[in-house]
Structure formats: C-alpha cells, structure tokens
Amino acid sequence: MTSKFSVIGQRVHNVDGTEKVTGSAKYTFDVVLPNMLYGKVLRSPHPHAKILKIDTSKAKKLIGVKAVVTGKDTLGHKQGIWRRFPELCDEEILCREKVRYIGDPVAAVAAIDEDTAEEALDLIEVEYDLLPAVFDPLEAIKEDAPQIHDGVELNININRHIEWGDVDEAFKKCDYIREDQFKCSSQAHVCMETHDAVASFGHNGKLTVWTSSQSSYYIQRLYADMLDMRESDIRVMNRHTGGGFGSKFELDSAQFCSAILSQKLCQPVKIVLSREEEFTATKRRTPMYYFLKLGAKKDGTMLAKEARVITEGGAYTAMGATALYLTGFFSSFPYKYPNYRYDGYRVYTNTAVTSAMRGFGAPQSTFVGESQIDMMADDLGIDPIEIRRKNGMTPNYEVPGQAFIQSCGLHQCLDKIEEHIKKQDKLPANHGIGVSAYGFMSGGIFNWFNTPYAFSAAVVRINIDGKVDLYTGACDIGQGSNTTLSMICAEELGIKLEDVRIFSGDTGICPPDLGAWGSRETLMNGNAVKRAAADAKSQIMEFAAAKMGVNIVYDLDIKDGRIHLVDRPERGVSYYDIVKEAIRGKDGVAIMGRGHYTPHRKGMISPAYSFGVQAAEVAVDVETGRYKLVNVTTAHESGTVVNPLGIEGQLEGAIMMAGGYGFCEDQPMDDGKILNPSIADYKLIRSLDMPETDILEIDTYEPEGPFGAKEAGEGLTNPTAGAIGNAIYKAVGVRINDLPITPEKVFKALREKEKNKKAK
Amino acid sequence: MIHDFEYFAPKTLKEALALLDKYQDDCKVICGGQSLLVLMRQGLVAPPYMIDIKGISELSYIKDEKDGLKIGAITTHRAIEKSAVIKKKYPVLAKMETRLASIQTRNWGTIGGNVCHGDPAGDPMPVLIALGATMTMTGSKGKRSMPAEDFSLDYFETALEPGELLTEISLPPVPAKTGSAYYKFNVIESDLATLSVAATVTLGAGDGVCQDIRIALGASAPTPIRPKKAEAILKGKKITDALLAQAGEAAVTEADPISDIYASEEYRRELIKVLVPRMTREAMARAKKA
Amino acid sequence: MKKELKFKVNGQPYDLFVKPKTLLSEVLRDELGLTGTKRGCNSSSCGACTVMLNGMSVKSCSVLALQANGSEVVTVEGLAKGNKLSPLQRAFLDHGSYQCGFCTPGMLMSSTALLTENPKPTKEEIKEGIDGNICRCTGYNSIIRAVTAVVKGEYKEAK
After folding, report:
1. Chain A, 112-151: which have a CB under 8 Å from a chain B CB?
2. A1 band by pLDDT with thresholds 50, 70 and 90
3. Class of domain C3-78
4. Which of A541, A568, A597 is the C-terminal boundary of a domain?
5. B246 touches chain A (CB under 8 A)
6. Total domain count for chain A?
7. What is the pLDDT of residue B206?
8. What is the b/e burial string over B198-215, where b = at least 16 CB atoms within 10 angstroms of the residue's CB?
C-alpha cells in the first residue's frame, strides 16, 4: 500500500546520524575555546545550615586560579521556572545565607585547568552554623519540623486540587471499594553527558553560552532574570546534547557559575559537572506517597477515584510544582471516572531538588493506578483487560471540566495486547504477564513560565537552489526532533529530506521555542514548522499559478520537487525552476515563511493525548525473589507516525528507563546524603538485562497535530513499572506497593504469603 | 582528581621487586588498574611512585602441567575466560570470568589485580577457594605459598607483605567425579556480587556419597570464607535435601554479612540458606557426569 | 616528570611527552583532539570512553596513557575509511541505533572489537559485547539488531 506521504513515515537516517556515528558530533563537553578557563563548584556538605563566613583568600592565591566567586558576587536574585508565581522562584543557585541540601552550591572557582580548580575548592573555607534538617515529607509537614524556607508554613511548597463530580456520594453507591497506599521512589536521569556549559562574557557585556540544554530559550530568559540583563544580549546555543530526560531545561549550577566567573574575567569559562555532582546536585524524579481509594460496581464499572499525594519536594520548587499537578491529572487516566478528586501537597525537604523527569509525575500515577485497578479486577473476578476496556477513554471524550481528548486509540491497543497475550504458549511456572495502560499529553498548555512568546515558532527560508534552511528553537536532545521537524518541513514543501538543513536551539538565530520537555516538540513545534513551510509554499505557489496559467478552479500542490495540478498530476513544472522565478519576482529576496503555534481554547493541560497498553512478562526465582524481565510488548498510538525509526527508538529507550524505575533504579539516602552517586552503584538496565521488546503500532490520527501526529517519547515511560508489578503478581501472587520492586521485597512478600497460608 | 606520580614500567620481575624494595610504602603497584584508578580518581589513594607491572610478560601465562594448572598473576580475566584448557578442565573458572565485569574490564584487568584488591565481593576468590587454589607470592627474599582461603585477611587487605607481589595462582588437578559450580547473586547481570557461593563436590565411587566438598562464600563477611561446619555436615555422607538444608543453615552461622543499600544482612543470610544447597546440588550433578 | 609516549592512533604514529597520571582518554581527547571518545563517569562503569587497544576493547579512562606505549589504538575516528563508513557505522544509521549519540562512539568500538575477535557471535555474545556500555536512550535492542545485520553479512566492507 503506497503511503499518501513522501517523507513522513519513511525509515530515514537521522539528519545528524553521520556526525554521531563518526564521532564528529560536537557536544558542549567537547567545546574548547581560545583563552578558556575551567571551573568547579563548591557545594554544601550539610543538608541545612546558615552560611556564616566564606574565606576564599587561600584559594585565590593558588597558582593557576583566576577567580573565586560566592553568592556575594551575584545580584542575589532567586530564580525558578514557575515565573508566573514569584514566590515559587526560590532558588539562588549560589547561596548567600543558607544552604538547604547536601550539594547546594556556595562558591565557584575558575582556573587554568580542572585539577587546579579542584585543588582550589579544598582551599575555600566555609563556616556553617548547622540547622536541624528534615528529609521525609511526612515528617517535614509536621508542626515541629525545621522550617526550610522563611514564611512557608509546614514546609508546604505548593498544593493542588482537582475535582469533578461528587466522590463522597459516589463511594456510597459502590459495590466495592479499595484503599491502597504506595510509595514511589526517586530516579536519576543519568544522561550520558553531564550538565555542562561554556559561558563567555565579552568586553561588551554580552554573554554567549554553549550548553547542553533542552530549552535554549528558557536558559536565556533565566540568565536574563538572574543577571539583570536584556534577553537579547544573551545568546544560548544548544550543541548536540547527550540526553536530557527533563534534567536540562532549568538554569543549573554549571550554567550559572560559569557565567558569573566569566563575567568577572571576560574569558570563557567551562564547567562540566562530575558524575557524582550529576547524581547529588542536579534535579531528580519526585518521590511520592500515594493514597488511593477506588470504588466500583461489581461488574467493574468504576464510579469514583480519590487520590491523595504527598511529594518529597527537596530544597526548592523547580518543576516539582508541575509534577505535582500532572500526577494528579494523570491519576485519572486513561479511564472515565464520573467522579474524581485529587489533593496533592509538595513538601520541602532538605534533600536534592525533585523536579521534572520523563513522564513528569505520570510514571508514578500510572504505577499506582494500574496496580490498583489490577487488584480491583482480581477482587471482582474480572479479567484485567476487560476491566480496562469497560472504563477506558474513547475518542472525543471530555475529562469533565479539564480536558478534551480528540484522538484516542486506547481500545485498539487493549485489543492488540489481549491478542498478544492469548497467542502466548502456556507460560512456565513462576512466569507471569502483567498489563498496564496509560495516556499522556503532547505538550502542556498552562504557561507557568510566563513567556510572552508563542510556544513554538519556526522560520523557513528557501534559497535559490530550492534547498531550505529551517530555523527553530526546538532542541534535539537525542529524541530526534531535528529529523522529525525536517521531515515535516520537507513533506509540507514537497521536497526531499536532504534538501532541508535545520538550525536549532540557537537563540541568536532561531525563533523562541519552549523546548524539549512535556513531549511537546512533534505536536507544537511540528505545527509551527508546518505553518512556516506552508507560508513559504504559498509564496511559491503564487508564482507557479501565474506561470502555469491554470483555470482558477484547479488546486496546485508540490510533491517530489514538482509543482502539479492536484486533479491532473501529469501537468506540472519543476519546483526548483519556480523558486528561481519567485526569488527574481521578489526583487532577489529569498522566500521566507514564518509559522508559530500556541494552543488556544484547548483547555489548560494539553491539546492532544497519546495512549498505549503494555504487557510485561517476568520470570521469578521463588527461592530468592530475583526476577528477570523477559519481554515487554507495547501497543501504542501516537497519531500519524512521522519518524518510525525514531519512535521505535523512543519506545525501547523508554522501556529501559521505565523498566529501570520498576526494577532496579533507586537513590537511597541517609540523612539527606545520596548513598549511590556513581554509575557503579546506581543500578541501570544494561544490554544483558534488557528484555525482548515488541511494538504493535496502532493507526490513529490527531487533528490537532501536524499531519495528524502527536507525542511518543514520554507517555511510553509511564506503564512499565505497573506492568512489572502486575506481572509479578500474576507469576507468584505477591504484590509490592513500593518502588523499586527489588528481589528482597519479593522474597519477603513470598515468605509472608507462605506464612499466611500455613497459618490458615 | 588523580595526583601525579613518578612512573616505572619494569620489564622483569627482578626489576619490579627491586623497585618495591626501594620505594616501600611510598609506591603502589598498578597492572590492569581497573580497581586502582577508581580509588585514585576518588582521591582515596595517592602514591608518589607507581610501579606498572603490566609489561612483565614472565608473569602472564596459563600452563597446564602434571601437578596442576599454573596461572601467572597478571593473566587477564579475558585470557582465562577464553583459555581452552581452563574451559575444559576448570569450566567454573572460565564461566565466572564471563560475568565478572564488562568485556572492556576483562580485557585489561587481571586475576592477580582482582584478588590483591581484596574486595570480599570479588568473583575469583570464592571460585579459587572452592577449587583448592594455592597463591604464590614473591619478594626479593624469595617465594612463599598459601592456600587461597588464607590469602584474604580483612576488607581490602591481603596476606601480601610489603615488597611482595602475587606471582602465581595454581590449581590442583581435578580428581575424578568432581564438579564445581558458582553463582553470583545480583540484580544486574554483570554487576558486583550481592552474595556469591562456589562449591566443589567430589563423589565417591558409585553411591552418591560426597567424598570431598569445598564451599566458599563471597560478599558474606569481611573476606571470602569457607564455611567448614557446613562442609562437615556433608562430607562423607550421602547427600539428601535435609542435609543440604542443614548445611545451608550452618553456613549462615559462619557468615558475617552486612546490611547495605543492596541487601539487608537478614536477606543475605536467607540467600546463603538457599544458594549453598543449590550450588552444592549443581556441583554434584556435574560430578556425576564427570 | 613527563615521560615519553610513542604509539599509533588510527594508524598514525605519535611521539608525545605526558605526565604519568594522564589517562589514555585524556591524551586522545586533549592532546590529539580526537573528541569522539567521551567520558561519562568517574567509576569505570559507563563505557563511553571505549577504544580499541591492540585489537581489544578497553575503557580508556581506566588505562594510563603510558600503558599504551608501543601499542596501537583505534578510536571511533578510525573506523571510516575517508568518507566511507564501516559496515557497523552504516548498520547503526539504518537501524537508528543511536539517539543522543554520546554513548555511540563507545558502542561502535565495543561492537567493532567484538566482531574483530569473533565475526559470528550469537545474540547472547552480542549482548555481552556491549554490556559494558550504558545507553540511556535506545534500550540497546536497536544496537543489537544493527550488529546482527552486520554478522548476517548484510553490510560489506567499503572498498
């Protein structure tokens, strides 16, 4: 069957693939500039303390040290990403008076090499007055807990409430109610490239920054806030970026400290965080205590769900507020609850800041929700697929008062997974298959960053040879947005992918884009790119129509470099020839098209949602509790598939990350100190541990998305932990409600089960 | 940050020993460096003098001789893993090496370097103990040898005296009707052991009686240990499930595991109870076929 | 005191003086400008720094530069012949076996070393071959598919 598209849906090489496989792709990690210095950051060893005095004199005297800065060398501003609410902009980065977690920056050094900078850190003397600290949000919310931020009662950073229907009334009508408690753990992003920046202040007071970032625009704006500079005097350039996963769109210590040092010296300063700093002093997934109450009729129809959540905020707000909201919103997904109530509290603690990580609160809500719905199914004697089918969202469903879901392929996904499970041979003993369903957004709408710009914008320039330069603020962090957006541009213009050259993530030449987070690039930036390409196309078409002199009733289109009549495709002219004429016609000016996208009147959450269902097979060693991930099969729908190779990669990568969340990743702490801040000690799924993966594509079409496309990278991070938990239950009959599901927990649960059996 | 040092790369054992005598406590020996460089990068170790023995070819060999197998101390893990004679005669040793760590580490790291590092969770030592290995150390004053189970003294501390290098690990010939097994319990396949058990069983002629048994536990105490009480329960007896369970319980009493972020002490003890019988059974099954 | 390091990298001989503490990864990146080899951790765990040393894959962050004296090193920059990519590189492109690309040089070096030693590995051996390399983006299976395709002979060495 021939595709209606020429470029969309093709299995293409990433546009930066050749650079990446030859090692010639340059990351901020590789940037070396003339006269460049190397910086290091001194961080608090205490979870909560007042800074009494910082003596940098010895460090300054060390040969090779060029500058040492502390909070006093900054303007003392606080910043944060929730700019709409100034009280939530609570992070100074270089602390002036108080430190609030182990790792909070207090000073920074610039020296001729990294070793000298590191030596200098040891010579900085900081006098602290230790304060009592609190690490667990359930403790921090008590009356007598130490106060972490002035004026913030009970350390409650922010709370969120979502409600529709009447939950209390509805529970009275239920035949069956379950109440369950869960604990969701933290998780580290573990980007292969750590946070890094090369900041260069010129003698003209303008700042240029090379950095590993998910949003050059956000970083530019946050720099402007912190340095009291005009945004336009700051240029942020995102290089090839070695991973983001939510960790790189907030202003970080590498970016800020390198800028402060460079400002003092008018020399470029490079700061690369060590892997240990990456684990201890960058942001992480939000741990959550979850209390769920679910009520249903005995035929499995859900009537009401109530979720109460307390999250461990860590020392500052960051994006934790969004995670708090989204976990509550996605706790209602992907089912139609006539009555729903969510109350969430984010509580400050003296631990590393919890913020955005791929899934943004939804991996947590999906783990707990999918575990509970399976428990409900078990109690009622209903098949796990059937209970999901009975309650699952459908196209054109309104989440009451919250969001409108246009395309939704959940039911097709359920059917595919049911088929997949039925096809399996009888499973060996102690094997089990568990199911988990999810829905996720394609970019958020609520403008907490308070940007005055369109959420996404793009410029297309058609040059004399018909080749196109595409300018977009979107940042490619490995998710392939450079390729996806180039494909959308090529498809719209009817030219080859190789004819598009993309310039992305450079605030000096690209229009602003909010960045690569919340799964927004394909839908939001994709729409901007499509519109820009359409704008440029219409300018060419004017000339084509005139040149071809066709009857006014006929439409023209471009495909494969040829402008033709839609109804009579054999009649056409070369696109390349028309471009030349159009440019001459415009007095020698290249064709420029502009496009932008901001979701209007699409609710406050997202313009579109993707859905999927995952089945995980595990094999459990009942004597030890150790288990293996055997297979993870996913049926998912993400609208029109623009970049199939990209989506497969996103899916398999998501399984590694989401599987890790359920299986092995954790950040245990002792009095606020992370105990495993190295890749040796932080357990990650490697190739020998990776399960077999299968993908079942479902065709859907999202009217809001470019060519019908919506997100695929983040939603897929949601279901795996729940699928693993459900699979273990199917395999050996025990349920673990706190992540990660370690062999020891399985072992203890199996022993408990045996004991209870014997007791009967 | 790694602090700089004076570097020597002797080509013979004699040269290396002379350097060790000269610099004594001020020097460290590097070979594969897979453990040492991690410690140095963390600033835990900063010797002014470094003696690199990687180039001493006389210390890298695998020799199958009448009185057993001789392995030079700087033989890489990968060479052991791929050695035809080891795969044939001591397959448990080759198998252990395949999951010791990544191929990159196995290509460059050495068995001597690993055992001298003295990590109680290290893979080779329990297997060497179960195989009845002998460790030979050489100093300028001469050679001495000891059983593998006496080589580790404490966490990251071995019986090597200043001025000595581990030069050879030798394995006795395998008696008839002998089988060995090794299991490393962890969550990630090629990760360090959370707990490990090795066992060698020699069966008597015909009737399933355990003529000889050696069990070794890793990551169960400050050093790898041989739970002799557990062995005594099985030695000379016809092995039954009940006896194996008893041996498991006995081994627990001889172990001294810790609680850490990977497992609690209690769980490690439970694992010993399960894995000692399991590895003994596996060793027996191989012994029957041998 | 700096010591002499004479070795070949990607077929090119070099004669340098380096501080003994210099790691092989540092001399490759900082002295020779071969920035394809990356550094991802401080604990010899991630494999992003993998190169081939005398035909074997090693983590260059865990080898002293001086230990490569007299040796031959191959980095990712040495895989292509001019602008002709190696079979593995082409297979990686076709199978989308990379995303952010930071681990990719290390993955390519581990895979190249694997196939140099054993041109017909099993799937399990391929998994083992890259087990020392962490990838946070791809989930490994696309890399395994690419290597498998090369093993099956779908990609010939460019002339």
Report:
1. 114-115, 118-119
2. very low
3. alpha beta
4. A597
5. no
6. 3
7. 66
8. bbbbbbeeeeeebbbbbb
